[in-house]
Amino acid sequence: MSVADPHVPNDREVPHPWVWAVLYFPLGLAIGFPSVALGYLGARAGLGVSEIAAIVGMTFLASGWKFLWAPIGDYTLTRKSWYLIAVLLVALGLIAMTGIPISKKTAPLLSALTFLTTVAATFIAFATEGLMAHNTTQSTRGRAAGWFQSGNQFGQTAGGGIGLWLIQHMPSSWMAGLALAAIVMACALPLIRLEEPPRLLGGASVGDRVRDAWRELAGVLRARTGRIALILAILPIGTGAAQFLFSAVGPEFSASADVVSAVLGLGGGLAIVAGCFAGGRLADRISKPVAYSTACGLGLVACILIAFAPRTSAGYAATTLFYTFTLGMVAASFTGLVLSIIGDKAAATKINLFFALNTLFSMGMLRAAGWAHDLWSTNGMLYTEAITGVVALAVFAALVRRVRGAERRSQESGVRSQEKSQEPGARSQGPEARSRKPGARSQEPGARRDQCKF
Q1: How confident is the model at residue 186 (pLDDT cuts 50, 70, 90)?
Q2: Confidence grade of residue 203 (pLDDT, cut at 50, 70, 90)
Q3: Is pLDDT of 182 > 90?
Q4: What is the pTM for the complete model shown?
Q5: Domain identity same for 369 and 289
Q6: Which CATH number fits the domain that encloses residue 115?
Q7: How far apart are the first and last CA of the chain?
Q8: What gap in Å lies between CA 450 and CA 341, rounded to an integer?
Q9: Residues 147 and 217 in one domain
Q10: Are residues 255 and 384 in the same domain?
Q11: What DSSP string describes 349-365?
Q12: Chain segment 351-401, per-residue pLDDT in tens
């Protein structure tokens, strides 16, 4: 399948992209609830930091390796079936997590429940990604990506806070679990408006499905657009490394606990959602690699602004919120970039490979940021992230020129070989043969137009 010819639903109306935010929200909540609510309640119950980290870390374990089981979502049941199964399991997981008292004895059980609930939530991602690839067009995928990521980010930030608030204000904690379960189940309602993609290889063997998934991945990575996206995925830009230390550097800006909580809580959630919308819109208006690079570049500017900001609460709030806004732009523009090249088949398998590579290679930048902070304090960390990002963007520009140059030389070589191989008999072909040539050439501009949108 050519990555330059994705499915385009010409015979029906493209759904409003708000549906992707709603459908993806349960995944964000499944990650945000343990991170925010269980982390806070665990600390209050006397759990050590390492025990809390073990619970919260289960969300990263599932999310970081979900590409390994993504083909199950692509090649077995329908997307809608997987979504309904997954959202039911997530609802049950939330009820179980809120119904079990937090203590040192129950910490291992809560870790297991967090892992299983997050694994179930990955199938929400697979289903939503497949439905989005099928029910959008090239011209609307950037906007769809913005809404898609806004649901995820809002679920991880404000969603986790909502869960904690419900636990603290309801008569019993399990009632909070029921309320959260009702919310995630209601998120399945937009499925009614969406068209189900065709099932892939319904009667094929497991081996055939694995080989087909590999062929789809290989086809994307062989294309120029796929190689450019791969370069962007592995470069240490757009990592958001500094955000993990925003709470720790608050005292340097004389920011009170309430200011830090507001900035990193609801304020950060709104900022990152706004960034998602901005990044999605940008990806629909300019080349998607340029949109992603622009978002990453703004993040580097934000690092410098934080370093030079006045050490006041206002300086802390303004600069960290701008940094968080750029993270939303990065998430949405990268999602739009990947959506533009994956086509319609095995969408979850392909998109999660790029997401996983981006996450795994970003971990190196996180380690570097921590090392720089220990060695040179906050400003040293910020300058390290900024300088590394500038170098990475320069490397990207150089590599893209090489990729495009190699492709251009290959095309020119192919044209010369074809001209040399033509014989007089071939040139004197009849009208029917000659009439096919313009048709073949007429397909090329369409492919080029599609790639220009990438």
Answers
A1: very high
A2: low
A3: yes
A4: 0.74
A5: yes
A6: 1.20.1250.20
A7: 17
A8: 10
A9: no
A10: yes
A11: HHHHHHHHHHHHHHHHH
A12: 888 887 877 777 677 678 778 877 888 888 899 989 999 999 998 888 777
Interatomic CA distance for residues 229 and 288, integer angstroms = 9
User: pLDDT at residue 449 above 50?
Assistant: no
pLDDT at 169 over 60: yes
pLDDT at residue 369 in the model = 77
CA distance 34 to 114: 7
The whole-angstrom separation of Cα 303 and Cα 242 is 8
By CB neighbour count within 10 A (0-12 exposed, 13-18 middle, 19+ buried), where does 364 fall? middle
Task: Tell me which residue of 358, 353, 349 sits closest to 327, measured CA to CA.
Answer: 358
Q: For the residues of 185-214, what is the DSSP string, one character each?
A: HHTTGGGGGSPPPPPSSTT--HHHHHHHHH
**Mean pLDDT of all residues in the chain?**
81
Tell me how many domains the chain contains: 2
Tell whether the model's pLDDT for residue 5 goes beyond 70: no
pLDDT of 422 reads 59
* Residue 4 located in a structural domain: no
Listed in sequence order, the residues at least 6 apart from 288 whose beta carbon sits closer than 8 Å to its beta carbon are 142, 333, 336, 337, 340, 453, 454
**Using an 8 Å Cβ cutoff, are 5 and 447 in contact?**
yes
Q: How far is CA 377 from the centre of its chain?
A: 30
pLDDT band at 413 (very low <50, low <70, confident <90, very high): low
Same domain, 235 and 299: yes
Based on the fold, state whether residues 23 and 136 are members of the same structural domain: yes
Is residue 163 domain-shared with residue 34, that is, in the same domain?
A: yes
Cα 274 to its chain centre, rounded Å, is 16
On whether the CB atoms of residues 306 and 381 are closer than 8 A, the answer is: no
The conformation of residue 16, written as its DSSP 8-state character, comes to: P
147 in a domain, yes or no? yes
Confidence grade of residue 442 (pLDDT, cut at 50, 70, 90): very low
d(CA 57, CA 35): 8
Residues spanned by the domain of 177: 12-199
User: Quick one: which of 284, 278, 319 has its CA closest to 302?
Assistant: 319
Distances (CA, A) of 203 to 75, 126, 350, 408: 10, 21, 22, 41
